[in-house]
Specification:
five-stranded parallel beta sheet
């Protein structure tokens, strides 16, 4: 706090942290009283000196100093009379305190101090310095946001006459008849991805009762299960609503298919019938049920989905020369119309399910160049129409079953580069073309009897070639 010198008023008495401790009138009255006290002291000093002068004058001779005494006493009386008259005037007028000049000085000084105090107060208020505790401003309540009308979720236009939520629920109920409900509820499963595509992305916006819903869903599951986005071609365009991009992806999708004039050639999951997707052929001039699924040499990966069993009229399933792994689903034995099952040049492991050998209409079973293990089941004899059986370059073991001789229409039998042992069944040798049968190619690991995995098969009487 700033202080003044001894001749100035101490501002600590009149200015404290944000307010006055004494009023201006009280301070002015105090200053007036101090002035009066000084006058009284001066008056007493004057009286004592006057009395001393009187005593001195009485000792002087009357004759020599009569004129001076007379003039001095007269002057003294005149001064005392003037002081007495001033005192009477002051007492008559009711005034107290110092004279007018002193009062004016005091008033001017009080005004100056008041202005300095105001300046100090304003500076302290502005800078919040000097230890002053400024009044804490009351926080302003946050503005109340103006309520906006709720924004409804965008609706998907449908031709079904139901809400989007009802449409999804009913489609979910339909596809739950095809897939495991648990798979449909798993966020990253191929089944869930296919469901989301059908409901949210598919340009066709199928209704739950559409007769092609199941087939379109199954093929969508196949796409996601075999890592369709990573295919070398025919993958779903990034923007299905962009005609130029869709046309460019369609042009790159050049799967040969089964050679039928009705084979599809468009990119998968585009807004056309699934029968027009690359490698798919449908009956009824290309608008009916899928009868052929042909994806050769497009880098198909992932695993084979069991949902293909519900393509009841499927006759051809070729998924070859890719990266497909996992096992052969036993549910494939339910595709009763299947004539060709070609899964060669992949990474498929495990046994050949016995259910496959129940496909009585199967003509071609090509499983060569995979990682198949286990023995060849004797149930294979129940495939009366089988003509092509290729199992070479796998890890199958055990002895070849005699039931192979029941395959009267067999033309090609290749079992080399495996871990089979024993002898080639004589019933098979009797099916050789040189013996009046149809078997024109028979290969096995019959080259070196010293090999660990050796199949006894004489050439050319039985085997056509030994490895």
């Amino acid at each position: 706090m700033r202080r003044y010198d001894a001749n100035r008023i101490d501002t600590d008495e009149v200015f404290e942290l944000g307010g006055y401790s004494e009023s201006r009138q009280d301070r002015q009255r105090e200053l007036g009283n101090k002035s009066k006290n000084k006058k009284k002291k001066k008056s007493r000093t004057g009286k004592s000196s006057s009395s001393n002068k009187k005593k001195g004058r009485s000792k002087t001779t009357k004759g020599s100093k009569s004129s001076k005494s007379t003039s001095s006493s007269g002057g003294g009386r005149e001064k005392r009379n003037r002081k007495s008259s001033n005192t009477k005037k002051n007492s008559r007028s009711g005034r107290k305190g110092p004279g007018s000049k002193t009062r004016k000085k005091l008033n001017d000084r009080a005004q100056e101090l008041m202005e300095e105090e105001n300046a100090l107060f304003l500076a302290a208020f502005a800078d919040n310095r000097g230890g002053m505790s400024m009044p804490t401003p009351r926080p302003r309540p946050p503005p109340v946001p103006t309520p906006r009308p709720p924004v409804s979720a965008p609706t998907i236009p449908t031709r079904c006459g139901i809400s989007p939520q009802e449409r999804r629920a009913e489609i979910l109920a339909e596809v739950s008849k095809i897939s495991d409900p648990d798979d449909l509820l798993t966020g990253n499963s191929p089944q869930r991805k296919a469901l989301d595509f059908i409901v949210d992305e598919d340009v066709l916006r199928l209704c739950p009762d559409d007769p092609t819903l199941g087939q379109r869903y199954i093929l969508s599951v196949f796409y996601y299960s075999t890592e369709g986005p990573n295919w070398s071609r025919c993958s779903k365009p990034n923007d299905l609503s962009n005609p130029e991009q869709v046309a460019a992806d369609n042009a790159r999708c050049n799967i040969r298919g089964d050679g039928s004039q009705f084979a599809g050639s468009d990119a998968w999951l585009t807004g056309v019938s699934e029968c027009e997707w690359g490698g798919i052929t449908c009956g009824d001039s290309g608008s009916g049920s899928a009868i052929s699924l042909f994806t050769e040499n497009i880098n198909v990966g992932g695993v084979l989905p069991f949902e293909l069993q519900d393509l009841e009229k499927l006759e051809v399933l070729h998924v070859e020369e890719g990266r497909t792994r996992g096992t052969i689903p036993g549910e494939f034995g339910n595709i009763k119309n299947l004539k060709e099952l070609d899964l060669n040049f992949n990474q498929i492991s495990g046994n050949i399910p016995d259910s496959i050998f129940g496909l009585r209409d199967l003509i071609e079973l090509d499983l060569n160049d995979n990682r198949l293990t286990g023995e060849l089941s004797g149930s294979i004899g129940g495939m009366p129409n089988l003509q092509f059986l290729q199992l070479q370059n796998n890890r199958m073991s055990g002895q070849l079953p005699d039931s192979l001789g029941q395959l009267t229409r067999l033309v090609i039998l290749n079992v080399d580069e495996n871990q089979f042992t024993g002898a080639m069944p004589q019933s098979v040798c009797e099916r050789r073309d040189i013996n009046g049968g149809r078997l024109a190619s028979l290969t096995a690991d019959c080259l070196n009897p010293e090999d660990k995995f050796y199949v006894q098969c004489d050439t050319p009487e039985c085997c056509t070639m030994c490895f």
